[in-house]
Amino acid sequence: MKKINLILIALLLFTCDSKTDTNNETSTFQVKELLSQLTNQQILPNVLEFKNQANTLNTNVESYLANTNEGNLIVLRNQWKQTALAYANIYAFNIGSVRDQFMHQALYNWPTLSNALENVLINNAEITEELISSLSPQIKTLSGLEYLLFNDTTTTINNQFSASEKRKNYLKYTAIEFKVQAERLNSIWTTSEDYANTFINSDANGIHGSFNKLYNGLYNLIDTAKIKKVGKPAGLENSTNTNPELLQAYFSSTSLNILKENMNSIESTYFNPNGLGIDDYVYSITNNADLNNSVQNKIDAIKDAIDAIPVPLYNAITSHPSEVEVLYNEIEALDILFSVDIRSILSIIITSTDNDGD
Predict the structure, then answer these.
(1) Do 273 and 42 touch, CB atoms closer than 8 A?
(2) Positive or negative CA dihedral for 166, 171, 176, 177?
(3) How many domains, the chain?
């Protein structure tokens, strides 16, 4: 009898030790290693890719201005789209020192104030680099470049540039400034500030903690997508009034493609196919995949809703409002998941979102 009791006691002690080990493993999840892997496997490569695309965009502008024809314009327009998608893939990383230096406004501030841009061309005898540097971001950056390249048919736009040295110079100097800002962004993360190292090794907690900033970057992107990219233009966000001209990238009919790339960015950061992701952190606390499966399902549902819209979003707001509303609702569901369920599990403090476009 004593032998049986001793065995039972030993089993109880072993069970208690096992639970203690499990709890310690959960409480000591290597957040710094998570940040290191996400920075080196997701943030830095994609920021570098964006910089490279911006450089290619500027090179294509130079080629087009040296030989102004429709063929070169088509190449340039396609490169604008590639650059915009590359930026869509890094907007979630508009955090910390990058956000403090208003890099988003310097790279892609929208919607475009097209009338203001045209007024600059009308009211200035010449367009200089100094003049461009003094202008509002909403009439330059990727936003202004899009308007210059996509405001009409290829033939009409080519004729606009051919007939106006001022328009050529506006394109030239805006592209140069954009390239410089893209290089500046990459430099903040790497050489000039080495923010990547600061970001990974910061010991700050709470609202100032690096993981809290990263999570807020993802949430900010989702919330901006819900409100600015779909909700307000489609009359689904605090008003029934529609205004498709509030959309991002409607001149180029790239709104939905950019939104899908935003979702790809969230997916890659959350699940990180190359290493530790936020899903691993969540699993270390919950010991099940329920929340992570919900995230994947909602991202997939958003992509499906995007694919179900058969025309550019600018037109769909009027011609396919039901499909647009489905898209809005799917983004809202992901927004709630991030702002309530996952936030609670990870003890995140949600800070204010930008909601100024992307």
Answers:
(1) no
(2) positive
(3) 2
Structure confidence by residue, pLDDT tens digits, 269-295: 999 999 999 999 999 999 999 999 999
| Average of per-residue pLDDT across 307-333 | 98
Say what the alpha-carbon torsion angle 289, 292, 293, 298 is, to the nearest 10 degrees.
Answer: 170
pLDDT tens column, 60-69: 999 999 999 9
Q: SS3 sequence, the chain?
A: CHHHHHHHHHHHHHHHHHHHHHHHHHHCCCHHHHHHHHHHHHHHHHHHHHHHHHHHHHHHHHHHHHCCCHHHHHHHHHHHHHHHHHHHCCHHHCCHHHHHCCHHHHHCCCCCCHHHHHHHHHHCCCCCHHHHHCCCHHHCHHHHHHHHHHCCCHHHHHHHHHHCHHHHHHHHHHHHHHHHHHHHHHHHHCCCCCHHHHHHHCCCCHHHCHHHHHHHHHHHHHHHHHHHHHHCCCCCCCCCCCCHHHCCCCCCCCHHHHHHHHHHHHHHHHHCCCCCCHHHHHHHHHCCCHHHHHHHHHHHHHHHHHHCCCCCHHHHHHHCHHHHHHHHHHHHHHHHHHHHHHHHHHCCCCCCCCCCCC
pLDDT band at 95 (very low <50, low <70, confident <90, very high): very high
Model pTM score? 0.90
Same domain, 150 and 224: no
- The domain containing residue 355 runs over which residues? 204-358
Same domain for 214 and 344? yes
Q: Average of pLDDT values for 5-17?
A: 37
CATH code of residue 163: 1.20.1420.20
* Nearest Cα residue to 254 out of 116, 81, 110: 81
CA distance 186 to 86: 13
Shared-domain flag, residues 168 and 197? yes
The number of beta carbons lying within 10 Å of the beta carbon of residue 277 is 22
Residue 298 sits at φ, ψ, to 5 deg, of -75, -35
